[in-house]
Write a structure and sequence with these properties.
Helix content: 40-55%
GO molecular function: DNA-binding transcription factor activity; transcription cis-regulatory region binding
Strand order of the largest sheet: 3-4-7-5-6
Number of strands: 7
Keywords: DNA-binding, Transcription, Transcription regulation
Pfam families: Arabinose_bd (PF12625), HTH_18 (PF12833)
Largest sheet: 5 strands, mixed
Distance between the termini: 24 Å
Protein name: AraC family transcriptional regulator
Oligomer: single chain
Shape: globular
Number of helices: 16
InterPro entries: AraC-type_N (IPR032687), Homeodomain-like_sf (IPR009057), HTH_AraC (IPR018060), Tscrpt_reg_AraC-type_HTH (IPR020449)
Length: 331
């Protein structure tokens, strides 16, 4: 999987439930290698590994997989148990129904249900009426979790027809296009994932051994796997991430389209070639600085900058911090 980083918004949002409950989150941040100073800049990013450690530390601190956002806590291990039940089902439809029945048995909140919308289309609908979720963190996490887990069960990405939300588009709504890669609807009558019904008939291809490996990377494995190649931006990112040099014309040729067509497709998705390339460079830079072992000068050269000063300026623009300060804050 190509390197992805996660906006600092999601770190702040994840911590809100613990802070609201009076918990000291300094240990949680330390466990994830995230400096408290990073929380102050909206441009900051963390790696998927850091995010995984943060959420796992929150689960342990609170003994609540809902992290203080639901009407009642979901004890540590609940999701793992649901996965164990689902992975033994013959197909995705029965796996989802068994998983949802399990949560119903526990009277878990929020609730979810599988809705048949005319035979060819189903939707997974969430009822978050009992949640205290001002940043929509729990909403977003549950939608992504169910989609990613369903795709993992059948061993292929399930393309979403659309995703609806009952609330207006939030300030961080730009992240939604990266996360879901499909048309979005806001101020809708329900919060739902829409997908083709045929996927419910697909066989479950995973087993318990694969599940154990999968859960070791949870929740980053579930919440940050966005490079499925479902849209043009993902395809461009994958080509660039494989070390293909050159600009838009060269990438367009690789995709078998003209440069104007590629530019138009990216604009339709609300992005541009330059933005996709900068996001990739930003994510690779953040991952290297957190990982360590590579000097800033070596990193600048590897990413194609003619000199370290140009990389310093770009990184400051991307994250609000200098490379040195970012490395120190993640150590």
């Amino acid at each position: 999987m190509l390197t992805r980083t996660i906006a600092i918004h999601y770190v702040r949002a994840a911590l809100r439930g613990a802070l609201r409950g009076g918990h000291d989150v300094s240990g949680v941040l330390a466990a994830a290698g995230v400096s408290a100073a990073l929380l102050a800049d909206d441009r900051a990013r963390v790696t998927a590994d850091q995010y995984t450690l943060l959420i796992q530390a929150l689960w342990d601190e609170l003994d609540d997989e809902a992290m203080g956002f639901a009407a009642k806590p979901s004890k540590r291990g609940t999701f793992q148990t649901m996965c164990l039940l689902a992975v033994h089902c013959p197909d995705l439809g029965s796996a989802l129904r068994r998983g949802l029945d399990f949560y119903d048995l526990l009277d878990a909140q929020p609730t979810a249900r599988l809705v048949d919308d005319g035979g060819e289309v189903h939707r997974l609908e969430l009822d978050l009426s009992g949640a205290d979720d001002p940043d929509h963190f729990l909403t977003e996490s549950l939608l992504v979790l169910w989609h990613r887990f369903s795709s993992w069960l059948v061993g292929r990405r399930i393309p979403l027809r659309r995703v609806d939300f009952t609330y207006p588009e939030p300030a961080h709504g730009g992240e939604y296009h990266l996360i879901f890669g499909c048309p979005l609807g806001f101020e809708a009558s329900s919060t739902s994932l829409w997908f083709d019904s045929r996927f419910l008939r697909m066989p479950v291809v995973q087993d318990e051994a694969a599940l154990r490996r999968y859960l070791r990377g949870s929740p980053a494995e579930l919440l940050s796997r966005r490079d499925y190649g479902a849209n043009t931006a993902s395809l461009v990112r994958r080509i660039l991430g494989n070390g293909i040099s050159g600009g838009l014309p060269e990438v367009a040729s690789r995709l078998g389209v003209s440069a104007p067509t590629l530019r138009r497709k990216l604009a339709t998705e609300g992005t541009s070639f330059r933005e996709v390339r900068e996001q990739l460079l930003r994510d690779q830079a953040v991952a290297s600085l957190v990982r360590g072992g590579e000097s800033v000068e070596e990193l600048a050269i590897r990413l194609g900058f003619s000199e370290a000063s140009a990389f310093h300026r770009a990184f400051k623009r991307w994250t609000g911090s200098s490379p040195g300060a970012y490395r120190a804050g993640s150590s």
